[in-house]
Amino acid sequence: xxxxxxxxxxxxxxxxxxxxxxxxxxxxxxxxxxxxxxxxxxxxxxxxxxxxxxxxxxxxxxxxxxxxxxxxxxxxxxxxxxxxxxxxxxxxxxxxxxxxxxxxxxxxxxxxxxxxxxxxxxxxxxxxxxxxxxxxxxxxxxxxxxxxxxxxxxxxxxxxxxxxxxxxxxxxxxxxxxxxxxxxxxxxxxxxxxxxxxxxxxxxxxxxxxxxxxxxxxxxxxxxxxxxxxxxxxxxxxxxxxxxxxxxxxxxxxxxxxxxxxxxxxxxxxxxxxxxxxxxxxxxxxxxxxxxxxxxxxxxxxxxxxxxxxxxxxxxxxxxxxxxxxxxxxxxxxxxxxxxxxxxxxxxxxxxxxxxxxxxxxxxxxxxxxxxxxxxxxxxxxxxxxxxxxxx
Length: 392
What we know:
Layout (H helix, E strand, L loop, with lengths): L1 H15 L13 H52 L1 H4 L14 E2 L8 E2 L3 H7 E9 L3 E8 L2 E8 L5 H13 L8 E5 L4 E5 L9 H5 L10 H19 L5 E2 L7 H5 L2 E3 L5 E3 L7 E2 L44 H15 L5 H15 L9 H27 L1
Antiparallel strand pairs: 1-2, 3-4, 4-5, 5-7, 6-7, 8-11, 9-10
């Protein structure tokens, strides 16, 4: 009965609101509970911010720097991977003037090839700078521009001289030295002057203090690509397939090409440039004398042994594949002995091996050129990508 009275009393007090419910610890309710939650969250956030702010300050610049490095390396890779498409474009001034015209030095307008009269009146010889079997070369001056004047040396070689002039006129391009004028009656030819001279001077030029920074595998490989590009151009010229016959040894080959001041290669001597005409069954022979040595292609050697005296009429003719045979030896010289050149040779080993096969098995100049360009892109990639990995 007392227990029933107590229960009724509690019920009455609760209904009247005089009893405050008893809550478990941490079970706050109402505005006080919400305020305590907000305070705790704010303290936790401030503690987190204090810990992370220094880290963020360090991470943000590092990420920006890494991004910049990646972009720069990506740009360099893209640039060098495609460099061979633009390489040599500095030398395409020939194309800016119509055939029979030239532009030289600071001249803005195209000038017609100089005639006999203009050469006699306007060109002043300064000194002799070279001499070959066919012609002498004089450093000369025309309207304050240095030019090269070539003149026939031996009258008996007029035919070779005229053939070289015809080739020079017909094959004008970025691969060929720029023709400025000629006087056929006087056997005189005027061309652009290149102070570095022939490719024989390459090592001497690159060893000069002024150009030592240019003496790299990359620049030397570009010269080799230039050389193969010229062979490809001669084998696929608008006039047909021509063969570089003045090439019985390495020095002779190098003397046929000039090194420009911008480190490009142009062919200069086209006196011995016979035409191959397969459709007409016309092959060629480089001269009428016996060729010897390991540098010339095997098919250029006398095939009947020492017991049979050489006779030109019995010597079998051949084609432009003799030029392909010589590419590895010329490229080996151009690559030189600098850091990275042996790696280039390693990547070119297979294509150079093919160049030394029988004529029918040798690659075309186009195939060699394509391989050279692919190797260049690969080596540039191998040079740039490790730098990106190191940054990562």
